[in-house]
């Protein structure tokens, strides 16, 4: 598991208050019980705070579209921070 994926997994587990949640790059909202639109925004806000970045409204909406997953979120974080992994 990449360092970035491990960190985002920690953010998700903390927000859901469940250390048993298994997160991979292919994990998407339907895979996690309770991951609704409000939780999506909470995840985005927590990621923004952790990495000191800001997503535009369009980027946030794109991350909620069908076919998007944790891997998409990781790619967006990498694009904003210049992180490689």
| Secondary structure tally, helices | 4
The total strand number stands at: 0
Please give the alpha-carbon distance between the first and last residues. Answer: 10 Å
Q: Structural class, please?
A: mainly alpha
CATH first level: Mainly Alpha
**Which regions are unreliable across 5 or more consecutive residues at pLDDT < 50?**
none
Q: So what's the overall shape? A: globular
CATH superfamily: ACP-like
Quick check: average pLDDT? 94
Looking at the overall shape, the CATH architecture is Orthogonal Bundle
Give the domain tally.
1
Order of helices and strands: HHHH
Radius of gyration: 12 Å
Helix content estimate? 55-70%
Would you tell me which CATH topology applies? Non-ribosomal Peptide Synthetase Peptidyl Carrier Protein, Chain A
What share of residues are in beta strands?
A: under 5%
The biggest sheet amounts to: none
Concise overview:
By secondary structure, the chain is mainly α. It is built from four helices and no strands. The chain has a single domain (3-81), classed as Non-ribosomal Peptide Synthetase Peptidyl Carrier Protein, Chain A, CATH 1.10.1200.
């Amino acid at each position: 598991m990449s360092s970035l994926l491990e960190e985002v997994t920690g953010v998700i587990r903390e927000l859901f208050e469940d250390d048993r949640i298994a997160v991979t790059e292919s994990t998407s909202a339907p895979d996690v019980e309770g991951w609704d639109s409000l939780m999506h925004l909470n995840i985005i806000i927590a990621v923004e705070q952790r990495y000191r970045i800001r997503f535009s409204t369009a980027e946030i909406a794109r991350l909620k579209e069908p076919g998007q997953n944790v891997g998409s979120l990781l790619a967006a974080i990498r694009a904003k921070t210049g992180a490689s992994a």
